[in-house]
Amino acid sequence: LTALMGGEHGRNIRSIKINDCKMGSDDYSDLPLKNITALEIYLNFDPQLVHCMLRSASSDNLTGLKITYCDLDTECFNVISTILQLSVNLEQVAVVPRRSSSCAVLLPHVARLQHLKRFEIRLKDINEQDGDHLRTILKRQLSQLGLHECTFNAALSSALIDSFPEMHDLEEITFTGDI
């Protein structure tokens, strides 16, 4: 991957999708991913690979960030939070860890994204403040919403009930797990 991205043709690559890859730590140290606009990591069980890939991508260029069914540790959530804070052009955010982790800690950062159109997340037992952040996100006129293995408590239900009537651009909604 380093050789591919470092060559003359690598500068034209704008999207990287990593799907269930097994890579040694030498394979993903100092990856030159500064021109990447979309990063998708799927079904990866190595948190070190996830945060190395995230750290290598420039937040200035990212319009899409999708991390689904991966093992995420605290460091991964810290790097994702930083990217969300710095990436003003993100249009797609999907953070759905493989294990039953809640991603509510990311909601305040996602709520600041003005260009967001597609959003997927796993939420467990959110509180009222999380619900307020979710309302802000849902009012961004999303075209796609995915709620994966969420706990539908009062805060989540209230945010959805309040927001759905105003979601005129919503074309696709996905629920997985218990509804």
Detailed description of the structure:
- The protein is of the alpha/beta class and 179 residues long.
- It has six helices and seven strands.
- The chain has helices at residues 2-6, 47-56, 74-86, 107-110, 128-138, 154-163; strands at residues 15-19, 38-42, 64-68, 92-96, 118-121, 144-148, 172-176.
- The chain has a seven-stranded parallel β-sheet with strand order 1-2-3-4-5-6-7, covered by helices on one side.
- Helix 5 (128-138) runs parallel beside helix 6 (154-163).
- It is globular, with a radius of gyration of 16 Å.
Order of helices and strands: HEEHEHEHEHEHE
What is the terminal separation in angstroms?
Answer: 40 Å
Helix content: 25-40%
Largest sheet: number of strands, sense, barrel closure:
7 strands, parallel
Number of helices: 6
The proportion of residues in beta strands is 15-25%
Keywords:
alpha/beta; 179 residues
Layout of strands and helices, then pairs:
Elements: H1 2-6, E1 15-19, E2 38-42, H2 47-56, E3 64-68, H3 74-86, E4 92-96, H4 107-110, E5 118-121, H5 128-138, E6 144-148, H6 154-163, E7 172-176
Parallel strand pairs: 1-2, 2-3, 3-4, 4-5, 5-6, 6-7
Brief overview, please?
The chain has 179 residues and is of the alpha/beta class. It has six helices and seven strands, in the order H-E-E-H-E-H-E-H-E-H-E-H-E. The protein has helices at residues 2-6, 47-56, 74-86, 107-110, 128-138, 154-163; strands at 15-19, 38-42, 64-68, 92-96, 118-121, 144-148, 172-176.
